[in-house]
Amino acid sequence: MQAQKNILVTGANGQLGNEFRLLSASYPAFNFFFTDVEELDICDGSAVSAFVKENNVDYILNSAAYTAVDRAEEDADTCRRINASAVQNLGLAAASVGAKVFHVYTYYVYRGVHYNPYNEDDDTAPCSVYGATKLEGERLLLAACPESVVVRTSWLYSCFGNNFVKTMLRLGREKPELNVIFDQIGSPTYAADLAAAILRMVEVSETSAFHSGIYNFSNEGVCSWYDFTKAIHRMAGIRDCKVHPIEGSEYPSKATRPFYSVMNKKKIKNTFGLIIPHWEESLAVCIEKLMKQ
Prior knowledge:
By secondary structure, the chain is of the alpha/beta class. The protein has a single domain (5-162, 187-220, 261-277), classed as Rossmann fold (3-Layer(aba) Sandwich). It contains nine helices and twelve strands. The strands form four sheets. A six-stranded parallel sheet has the order 2-1-3-4-5-10, sandwiched between helices. The protein has a two-stranded parallel sheet with strand order 6-9. Helix 2 (45-54) packs parallel to helix 3 and helix 3 (76-97) runs parallel beside helix 4.
């Protein structure tokens, strides 16, 4: 009987980490170690190395990150420590034992100034501290552990933690009116779909060659934040809140956001045989779960 493969999940208390928890029972071939900063501080390279060696880790699924985009403009050191240096720690630890890393990153590495979906090999030009540290983390990881997969995603939400969907549900019930940006375009990503895709990628890696490199992943389809909000309210039955479209320039923020963040997912679909749901289908699933909470 083939031995179980050991998978370390970092950032396990976050949106994606919790989705990995829910899905883990459906993967009996894998033995999961779920950690967050209390169990394993990935900024501590020695601790990471020791954990990986002592637990014979075969795969690291890194969903830990500094995600406060605006705060990062004033807290660059902390942001860089978590999004870059800590990621290098994971790569070095993995490489030392022959493990592989699946690392979740962001569309913020793209400049976001044109209207063609971004390919993985398009030029990167982050316009914020957050994006810059994310790009640095990608490069440090791939240099430390070439046997790594970087998954760039966008507009992540789930039933867990704080995210745009839960915020719009709360505000829609509390306020008679909302102003929401209409000129930033992207693709929402349901964290449950992303977690399932990554675990599928691990399965493929177990049965065929390991396909390292950078991949884009989001749900299918595109929308603006305004369109996204209207769909959230419609699906949740919120009718008494008037949503007004505004330009991004009317919404003050410390960090610059890409105004176009649609990504081409052909590479990940062809390489791993993924079928990705449309964002409205997945949003409906998430809303239904939230309504039952």
